[in-house]
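> example.struct
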């Protein structure tokens, strides 16, 4: 539905492009100031968000339900079937952490599952983010400013719209999980935990504010600073009951020799951590490879099998046996490391010459990589301005992520751009969710 509403939004803006261009520039100054305050950087945005309506929201909820059912079945089979675990081939230390009961039965308490999406018949998933699911601050900062724009005020003379806050629902759902499965304290002490030299700290600042607004103590902690004393996990004098995990598993494994206290406390159930290490099963890029295997399809029902076959792109492990296929048909493939994030180490064949691509693929053989079917995206319409302030309706490729908390769809998160890969270190714009109520 985005294109329909974008056309109407464009008709508003082009009536007085000078006025709306000045509004956009002023809005951008406020957004830049807000981002610099909490991140020290600037995040790009257009004058328009991503429009969706109630019918589309219901469709996204149905997709989320399907994904969570599949997630549960994958996790259950990983836990009970040693042969299935071999598909993932995680190191023993990680497998042991995954096998440990986190004291709740939700495999992935928080995630953002990303897809190339045009309409109900054109969907391909590109990434499942569980560990360290981020970018809520981009939604929040840009979304609230876009909602206050002059063009949106005019647009809302016809429609009622809302930018969904993606912080408050997680605060509520995380406490709901704690109270259902633990509830040792009426007011648990919350810690947002990551490696502070790599985490998305703007998210942390806002989550802390919203936890405190809801009446809960909350601290932002570097996992290396946590100590296990007298059966309690401590950050200096702060006793931790509930951890909102933001560290990704690959960073955890890279620093595991510094984390003896944390690991001991985890195995002793000294705290509840959302999410547990079990969420890494879906976070690993190998999940796309595993889902298409007969071992996975065997425990999915007919509807789930159809969903997987239709919406999961072909994926295999890159090896010497198939590298020639990948090199010779470069425009058909994208390669990704098993456990990368923020699109680090991701390469698209279309973006490189044949000689460059051959070098990239051969280099990738030195570390665990998958290769995956390249998905030709279908662009969506967004309002933009030329340098001299003229309003234009432009085509942008997009990745639409589904924020899912406690197995409930919350809102989409959309990045748009002109390049084959949208996000990571490439140039992209954030298009905050605008629900047409």
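> example.seq
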């Amino acid at each position: 539905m985005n294109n329909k509403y974008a056309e109407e939004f464009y008709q508003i803006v082009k009536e007085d492009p000078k006025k709306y261009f000045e509004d956009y520039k002023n809005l951008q100054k406020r957004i830049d100031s807000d981002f610099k305050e909490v991140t020290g950087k600037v995040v790009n945005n257009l004058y328009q968000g991503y429009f969706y309506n109630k019918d589309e929201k219901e469709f996204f909820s149905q997709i989320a339900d399907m994904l969570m059912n599949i997630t549960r079945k994958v996790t259950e089979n990983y836990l009970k079937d040693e042969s299935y675990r071999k598909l993932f081939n995680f190191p023993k230390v990680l497998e042991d952490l995954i096998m440990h009961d986190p004291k709740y039965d939700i495999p992935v308490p928080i995630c953002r599952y990303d897809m190339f999406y045009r309409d109900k018949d054109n969907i391909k998933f590109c990434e499942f983010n569980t560990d360290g699911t981020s970018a809520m601050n981009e939604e929040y900062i840009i979304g609230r400013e876009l909602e206050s724009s002059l063009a949106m005020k005019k647009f809302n003379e016809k429609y009622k719209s809302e930018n969904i806050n993606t912080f408050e629902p997680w605060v509520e759902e995380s406490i709901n999980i704690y109270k259902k499965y633990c509830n040792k304290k009426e007011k648990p002490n919350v810690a947002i935990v990551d490696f502070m030299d790599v985490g998305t700290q703007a998210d942390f600042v806002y989550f802390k504010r919203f936890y405190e607004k809801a009446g809960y103590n909350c601290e932002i902690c570097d996992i290396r600073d946590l100590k296990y004393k007298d059966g309690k996990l401590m950050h200096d004098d702060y006793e931790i009951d509930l951890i909102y995990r933001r560290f990704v598993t690959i960073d955890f494994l890279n620093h595991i020799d510094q984390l003896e206290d944390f690991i001991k406390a985890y195995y002793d159930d000294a705290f509840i951590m959302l999410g547990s290490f079990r969420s890494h099963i879906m976070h690993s890029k190998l999940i796309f490879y595993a889902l298409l295997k007969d071992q996975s399809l065997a425990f999915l029902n007919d509807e789930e099998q159809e969903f997987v076959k239709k919406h999961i792109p072909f994926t295999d492990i890159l090896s010497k046996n198939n590298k020639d296929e990948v090199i010779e048909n470069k425009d058909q493939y994208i390669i990704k490391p098993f456990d990368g994030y923020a699109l680090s180490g991701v390469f698209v064949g279309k973006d490189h010459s044949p000689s460059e691509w051959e070098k990239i693929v051969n280099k990738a053989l030195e570390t665990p990589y998958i290769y995956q079917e390249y998905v030709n995206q279908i662009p969506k319409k967004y309002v933009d301005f030329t340098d001299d302030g003229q309003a234009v309706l432009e085509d942008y490729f997009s990745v639409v992520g589904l924020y899912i908390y406690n197995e409930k769809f919350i809102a989409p998160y959309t990045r748009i751009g002109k390049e084959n890969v949208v996000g990571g270190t490439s140039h992209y714009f954030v298009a905050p969710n605008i629900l047409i109520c």
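> remarks
The first strand starts at residue 50 and ends at 53.
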